Amino acid sequence: EHEIVFIGRSNVGKSTLMRELLGAKVRVGKRPGVTQKPNFYEYKDLLITDMPGYGYMKGVEHAKQERIKDLIVKYFEDHASRIVCAVQVIDAKSFADIVDRWDGRGEIPIDIELNEFLHDLNIDVIIAANKIDKIDPKDMDTVLDDVVERLKMYPPWSGWLDRLAPITAKKGDVDHLRYLLKNRLRAIKREDLVGCF
Ligand code: GDP
Q1: ipTM score
Q2: DSSP conformation letters of 116-166
Q3: The domain at 2-196 falls in which architecture?
Q4: pLDDT tens, 4-45?
Q5: Cα 28 to ligand 1 centre (Å)
Q6: Candidates 9, 11, 34, 135: which one to mutate for ligand 1, based on the most atoms within 8 Å of Cβ?
Q7: Lining residues, ligand 1, CB within 6 Å
């Protein structure tokens, strides 16, 4: 069995993205913090997992945020061998600022911690840089260069399109992410699964 796992900070648009990618069967518009267990979707023998959103959520105490992060870490440790790739969804525009704010407090930003953890586990990570529509086109290069730099990849961002997909889930503009996901399934010789995306 093969699995693709979606993770992301709360409110980055992960539910919107999954509905766009997988069709109407994915629920959206839930209250933040409601989903504290993974949601699973299946296509043939491909499992698609939507992990609970992490980080700050209104009305969710710090301890619960930590539990969600621990659950995500444990999930990847337990299932690493069947995971084809992880899709880490971020809000492209606010990503660098949030990372810098945590760094400024001497803390490790959750997104960075999880990204490095996945690389340590040798899991292939695709960054879905969402809400591209909120970025002024003239700022696009700066914003995306800042994103890749925080993730310890060297600018320019355009050199990373094998693992970075700028998308606008809300408008259905997710073509590059679909391409990368199909590409990962072809790499494991599962042409029969590409129809999922
Ligand atoms: P989740 O908590 O990560 O599952 O986020 P949701 O899918 O519930 O989306 C959170 C908010 O972001 C909602 O108001 C969405 O309409 C909005 N959103 C999602 N994708 C986009 C996008 O591509 N652009 C913009 N501007 N807003 C988006």
Answers
A1: 0.99
A2: HHHHHTT--EEEEEE-GGGS-GGGHHHHHHHHHHHTT-PSPGGGGTTTEEE
A3: 3-Layer(aba) Sandwich (3.40)
A4: 999 999 999 999 999 999 986 544 444 455 557 898 888 899
A5: 9
A6: 11
A7: 8, 10-16, 28, 32, 53, 130-131, 133-134, 168-170
